[in-house]
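Can anyone check this?
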Amino acid sequence: MTQQQEKLSAFLDGEGHDSDVINGLTSDAELADKWKRYHLIRDCMRNEMTSDLNFDISAQVASKLEGELPMVAPKPSWKELPVVASVIPLVKQSGQLAVAACVTAVMIFSYQSYNQPEESQPFLTAPTNGPLGGLAPVSLSSSNGVNRDDMARLLEQQRQINALIEDHQRQIRLKNAGNAESNQANTTEGDELSEQTPPQK
C-alpha cells in the first residue's frame, strides 16, 4: 500500500486529518474512486447499505474482456458422431467373432493334420539281379512297431471320443424323456381337475 492510500485509510477511520489527503481527493480521480470504494466497503461491513445504490461496472468488465482470448468450443471428433458411435460396437463384436473363428479353424486344421495317418510307401527292394549272396531285403519290423503304437494311440483316442459322444446323447435323451414325463403329468392333472369340478351354469 502506498503512503497516500495509508493516509486515505486513516482519514476514513477518523484517525488523522491531513490536508494533503483532502487536496488529493479533489485533484486525483483514482484516489477519489478509492474513497468511494472504501466507503462502500465500510457500509457493507456495517450493514448500512442504501437501496438506491447505483454504480456501473460495465465499462471495467468490457475493458477486461477485450484483453481476454476468445473461447472457442472444441469441434467434436469423428468418434463422437452418432453414426460412428453406433457402428463401433458392431465392429468390435465382428472383430471378436473373427478372432474366435480363426482360432477355431486353426484348432480344427491342426487336430486333423496331427491325427492324420502317415502314408506308407511300399518298401522298395533292391534288384535281385546280380551275384548270389548279394543284397538281402531289409526288414520293416522296427518301423511297423512305431506305426502300430501310433495307430493304437489313435484308436484309443477315437474310442474315448466316441464314448463321450454316446454319453452326451444319452444325457440328452434322458433330459428330453424327463421333460416329456413332467409335461404329461401336468396335462393329466389338469384333466383330472376339470373332471372333478362340475360345469358352471
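Reply from J.R.: I decoded it. The mean pLDDT is 76.
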